[in-house]
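Postdoc handover notes: sequence design on the structure in folder B. Input tokens:
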């Protein structure tokens, strides 16, 4: 998929590079011959010529980009990584550079570095502008890393965006089943006996993003019918119902608790639903159970805060919101909840401070889900 992009990108890169005067004869000749070698499908020669060109002009970002793409195509990921690390230092706004660097690091299993660079690439592309196939591939790997970290909801949001852009891709569809079932592993690590349930969950998720609600509903019912005891199947179905048929979701979350008694996410969802139904005693009970099971769960702290707020206990809600903020200090949405709670408590100075932080984080987060 990346191969199809490279000829045009390499030609554009060398054309831009020729306009900058630095040893013009030698540099122009090398960059032109490098492009010719690449067009003629002579990658070794092209890489050698581009390497000679960047030695003459080390600040030629497009040359490092060209080397990186050639090495990626040759499955020489450490060499690709090193070239692109030079490139992004020279051009800190190059989303494709950060994307390909992150993909190289993914291949070399440098997952922390890969996450940071893929996230950077994602945030450099405005939501209103399609990033193109390379950025879609980068987002796909970013979604996998988010899932592996246990950030299931953010991973699903990423997969939802990918599905709406890519539409038909069975590999990506399969991978989307993992955050849907809250399985923090890579697709290659799925056991043979679990591939079918992951496939079915992925199809339900993908159809939810790309097909009619009726088709997605069929997928979910088939999944629950075939795998009624598999962990997180009822939870996944319950989240779908909560969004589309909210009055039907509580039994699914309760069934999930019957299969996974220590499920914090199921309790969080129950608490949020009970708040909406004004069943505040049950909302508070579920939220407190979730916090007791996992005090470091942002979702549990937020559910507790919302249940307390609904009961009119703004002081208690503020304490839980602040706990959530400590666990996730870069979330703009949590800051906004704290702003509203300070307003309700008439604590104006603190409200203004949090509003400033909210606005700063909102600007920094940009296109992040």
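Designed sequence:
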């Amino acid at each position: 998929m990346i191969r199809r992009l490279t000829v045009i990108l390499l030609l554009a890169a060398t054309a831009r590079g020729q306009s900058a005067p630095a040893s013009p004869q030698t540099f122009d000749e090398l960059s032109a011959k490098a492009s010719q070698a690449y067009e003629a499908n002579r990658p070794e020669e092209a890489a050698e010529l581009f390497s000679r060109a960047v030695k003459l002009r080390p600040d030629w970002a497009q040359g490092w980009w060209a080397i990186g793409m050639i090495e990626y195509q040759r499955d020489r990921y450490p060499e690709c990584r090193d070239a692109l690390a030079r490139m992004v230092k020279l051009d800190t706004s190059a989303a494709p550079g950060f994307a390909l660097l992150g993909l190289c690091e993914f291949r070399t299993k440098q997952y922390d570095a890969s996450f940071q660079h893929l996230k950077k690439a994602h945030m450099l592309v405005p939501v209103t502008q399609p990033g193109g196939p390379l950025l879609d591939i980068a987002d796909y790997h970013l979604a996998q890393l988010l899932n592996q970290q246990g950030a299931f909801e953010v991973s699903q949001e990423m997969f939802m965006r990918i599905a709406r852009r890519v539409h038909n891709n069975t590999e990506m569809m399969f991978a989307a089943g993992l955050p849907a079932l809250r399985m923090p592993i890579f697709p290659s690590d799925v056991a043979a006996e679990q591939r079918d349930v992951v496939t079915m969950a992925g199809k339900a998720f993908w159809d939810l993003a790309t097909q009619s609600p009726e088709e997605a509903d069929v997928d979910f019912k088939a999944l629950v019918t075939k795998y009624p005891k598999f962990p997180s199947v009822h939870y996944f179905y319950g989240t779908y119902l909560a969004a589309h048929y909210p009055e039907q979701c509580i039994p699914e979350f309760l069934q999930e608790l019957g299969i996974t008694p220590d499920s914090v996410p199921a309790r969080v969802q129950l608490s949020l639903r009970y708040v909406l139904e004004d069943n505040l005693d049950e909302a508070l009970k579920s939220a407190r159970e979730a916090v007791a099971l996992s005090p470091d769960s942002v979702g549990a702290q937020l559910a507790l805060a919302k249940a307390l707020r609904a009961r009119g206990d703004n002081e208690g809600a503020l304490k839980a919101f602040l706990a959530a903020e400590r666990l996730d200090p870069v979330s703009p949405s949590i800051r906004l909840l704290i702003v509203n709670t300070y307003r309700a408590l008439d604590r104006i100075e603190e409200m203004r401070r949090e509003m400033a932080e909210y606005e700063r984080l909102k600007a920094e987060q940009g296109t992040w889900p």
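Context for whoever picks this up: The longest helix spans residues 348-365. Don't rerun without checking with the PI first.
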